[in-house]
Amino acid sequence: DSGVTQTPKHLITATGQRVTLRCSPRSGDLSVYWYQQSLDQGLQFLIQYYNGEERAKGNILERFSAQQFPDLHSELNLSSLELGDSALYFCASSSQGWPGNTIYFGEGSWLTVV
Amino acid sequence: TQLLEQSPQFLSIQEGENLTVYCNSSSVFSSLQWYRQEPGEGPVLLVTVVTGGEVKKLKRLTFQFGDARKDSSLHITAAQPGDTGLYLCAGSGSSNTGKLIFGQGTTLQVKP
Q1: Cα separation of A63 and B78, whole Å?
Q2: Which among A35, A66, B10, B73 has most CB atoms closer than 10 A?
Q3: Contacts of B103 in chain A (CB under 8 A)
């Protein structure tokens, strides 16, 4: 158990819909990351937050957005869903947001778009 | 754009054999990490290497960071069925963030 909690674990939704994935980081961790894992793309960095502010942005689509709240939990919002958005979405956290920090991953949220 | 290429993508070996997984890039990384991921779970950190030429050992696993900090290898001695899983290398760039660039992964199957 990494201490990072993600909900829901599995989600099936239709194209065009919107979903929200939730993440609670490890106690005391200030930085939260979102990654997408698919068979063809592997693990891709989406976005990083540090203490409520966006720190880094990766290949995140405009249809996706995220935020980190004052209690440090984070949400990833995916809208106008397409079949290609089906993937495993991981949240991860680290104590700080610097290179070399140990990053702990949650168990992921499986999203299936039908 | 920083990219990490892992090889081989798939490896199926018998228990007791040795193996090496490679992670290569044309870019320099400030640090490189190796993760292991099992089905239904998130990646779990095995090791972080920071210094060029650094070698770290974790029981039967030996990790090496290239002198130029562009490549790394993972060597497993006398593989066991419990080593089965997806091995991922991930590089941390020079940017002031914790962002990681992941390789495509190596799926290892160790047969008893």
Answers
A1: 47
A2: A35
A3: 42
**Distance from the Cα of residue B46 to its chain's centroid:** 8
Q: A24 CB near a chain B CB, below 8 Å?
A: no
Tens-digit pLDDT profile for residues B32-56: 999 999 988 999 999 999 899 999 9
- The token pair that represents B27 in the structure block: 């870019």
pLDDT in tens, A9-60: 999 999 999 999 999 999 999 999 999 999 888 899 999 999 999 999 998 9
CA dist list (Å): A99 to B20, B31, B37: 26, 8, 21
B51-86 burial code (b ≥16 CB/10 A, e <16) = eeebeeeeeebbbbbbeebbbbbbbbeebeeebbbb
Task: Say yes or no: B9 contacts chain A, CB-CB below 8 A.
Answer: no
Residue A90 CA to residue A34 CA, distance in Å, equals 6
Nearest to B82, CA basis, from B108, B53, B49, B43: B108
**Closest Cα in chain A to B39:** A107
SS3 of chain B: the string is CCCCEEECCEEEEECCCCEEEEEECCCCCCEEEEEEECCCCCCEEEEEECCCCCEEEECCEEEEECCCCCEEEEEECCCCHHHCEEEEEEEECCCCCCCEEECCCEEEEEEC
Structure token pair of residue B15: 């228990």
Chain A contact for B39 (CB, 8 A cutoff): no
Q: Which residues are registered as beta bridge partners of B39?
A: none
